[in-house]
Amino acid sequence: MDKKKCSSSKEKCALQEILGVIGGKWSMSIIYALFTGKKRFSELERMVPNINTRMLVKELKNMEANGIVVREVFATVPPTVEYTLTTKGRKLEPIINELYKWGVEYVG
Amino acid sequence: MDKKKCSSSKEKCALQEILGVIGGKWSMSIIYALFTGKKRFSELERMVPNINTRMLVKELKNMEANGIVVREVFATVPPTVEYTLTTKGRKLEPIINELYKWGVEYVG
């Protein structure tokens, strides 16, 4: 989140900080793709519509730093990289599913 | 949402489209501020930490076009403009509150 001091109430700053972690249009789609289990980079790139490689790298780095996903590298040739949701990330499943239901009713 | 044809599954495109409507970091904070009732532009500007006037104008236009808020102009001198959540917007309240609770536990 923008490090500028948050002058508003504690509650609103907290929401702003939360949305800084998972509020991005791409992060929720990536989390949604990971609900069905660990994925490789190339799989995520196919699963998230309209995302490009640079954006996916950036989002995954941000999500790893925020403890939403873990990144595992396997010493295959070439090396394989897999991403999995942490417990913290998995707890978003009911919320994102509710958001999806809202959207199907009101946006689809 | 980027008009490029959404080649992935219908479900993932729907989520992408939904997040295009309310996925923005600012839109959820604006919706959160409107849960406590209609607000003027200047009130919203104070309530949403770190947002600037140009961004708030853009987000409110987008939200009005997507039927999340209604904009009412009152013929005072100078004219007053108030924003209110539509039924569609208000249905996001439990979802954003759950997101906030998740954040307080995992991000705060």
Automatic annotation (TrEMBL), chains A, B:
Residues 13-108 form the HTH hxlR-type domain. Keywords: DNA-binding, Transcription, Transcription regulation. InterPro entries: HTH_HxlR (IPR002577), WH-like_DNA-bd_sf (IPR036388), WH_DNA-bd_sf (IPR036390). The keyword Transcription applies. Pfam families: HxlR (PF01638). The keyword DNA-binding applies. GO terms for molecular function: DNA binding. It comes from the Bacteria. Gene3D superfamilies: Winged helix-like DNA-binding domain superfamily/Winged helix DNA-binding domain. This is Transcriptional regulator.
